[in-house]
Amino acid sequence: MFYRQLGKIPHKRHTMFKKDDGSLFREQVMGTKGFSGTQSILYHYYMPTEVARTELLGSYLPEYEEQESLKHRHLLTDRIQKKGNALEAREYLLGNDDLLIGTANINEPMRSFYRNGDGDEMLFIHYGTGRIETMFGTLAYRPGDYIIIPIGTIFRVIPNEGERTKALIVESFSQITTPRRYRNEYGQLLEHSPFCERDIRGPDTLETFDQKGEFEVITKTRGHLHSHVLNHHPLDVVGWDGFLYPWAFNIEDFEPITGRVHQPPPVHQTFEGHNFVVCSFVPRMFDYHPQSIPAPYTHSNVNSDELLYYVEGNFMSRKGIKKESITLHPSGIPHGPHPGTTEASIGKKETLELAVMIDTFKPLKIVKQAKVIEDEKYMYTWVG
Hints:
Elements lengths: L3 E4 L18 E6 L7 E6 L6 E9 L13 E4 L13 E6 L3 E8 L6 E4 L4 E7 L2 E5 L2 E5 L3 E5 L5 E5 L5 E8 L27 E2 L10 E10 L2 E9 L4 E6 L4 E4 L18 E5 L2 E6 L2 E2 L13 E2 L4 E8 L12 E5 L4 E2 L5 H5 L4 E2 L2 E7 L4 E2 L18
Parallel strand pairs: 8-16
Antiparallel strand pairs: 1-18, 2-3, 3-18, 4-17, 5-25, 6-7, 6-29, 7-14, 9-12, 9-14, 10-11, 10-13, 12-19, 15-19, 16-17, 20-21, 21-28, 22-27, 23-26, 24-25, 24-28
């Protein structure tokens, strides 16, 4: 990411920065990979280490199904009835040692604050508007936003009153970044990247709360949720600067890469983490070779599982898929267009599909309760 600053900061880091009454603001260095990764420095009214009491809330790790026969899967997430705030409404569906994937029907503001101490989080907003209040400031969100929240960030999600937010959520156990091949040696996105820094939004405003009282921060780490009750408001930051902060990128700003013949899925890559990538399928012109076949060719995911979350439009290579569907095509067996879709794609000039793809380089496991929303017949839909 690139350098940003919000609020008031001293001229030099690690020097005295005084309040109006002469007492010191409290400096916090927040970074990744020890002191060799991206970092920011925040200045608090109160010590961020002031905790009045703690409590172990319990495990958050999902229970996975026992080994089943290798097959393609289709999960109908629009059938999930669970609702609530952005933490309580999470329904885990798949995961492995690198990430957890789920959805959330968010219809309430978060009462407590929250931080993930295990890794970054990515929220893809399918529909709904609202804001995310963080220690770095507030980010407004709208449909199509990818929101990346760094490890250790205190935040809460506030949907707009009377609206429900549907989000695809990735909890990563590593840092989520832009693809390395789209960055130069200085970290700047290159000219052939499908988006640039101009498309990325940081926090809009920094609201500082100089307020004492009891405020709960739920911390997720080491497989468990922990309650930390602070004796001051956790969003007491008067200013910060650096390269680590929450940011948003809207899928509408992804510029698709096309060619004379069908391009492979990596051209759609948007983000990457350890052992996984995130791709964006957006409206685009089809291939322009006079004999091109726009539908994707059958391919084997030899070293990766492929998950697709369907946002809107008619996904031309699939039948029986609808908005909010998730399909999983695991490594080890081939997958491709449904019967008839290859021929139907010939001569088409464009697609209006919108979808998010997550490829993992370790097999994904299915959470047991996901069975309730599964289309059991999906594996057999390629039979003519």
